[in-house]
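Appendix B. One record, verbatim.
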Amino acid sequence: MAKPNYSGTFHMVEQENMDSYLEALDINFALRKIVCLLKPTKEITHDPATGAMKIRTVTTFKNFNMDFTIGKEFTEDLGPVDGRVCQTTVDWDGDNLVCVQRGEKEGRGWTHWLEGDKLHLEMRVQGIKAKQVFKKAN
């Protein structure tokens, strides 16, 4: 069965537990407060035939780009996030995209899934979970 196409522009509409997640990544207090106020937009380009995916997280403060091929490990520079480098793999779990980021922090990664016009993102590190929900732009 074909996997869903995640392509689109999505605007954040909900966020839970982001401060605790950022604290687990050793992000300083002031930066955590700024990040928690941001309303990011996700711009996703996904080619289901090749597995190529680009995720652009755009904010008024800082942007983050992630380019990868589903199922292939790559070195991810998380400098814009927390200054770390991880060995990262994004793969399918059913229709969900699951990311495992191996590096200094245990249990680090995220899961994306689609429900109707909403893109869900659960981020994990050291047993702490944060969630964001994005609505697809028309």
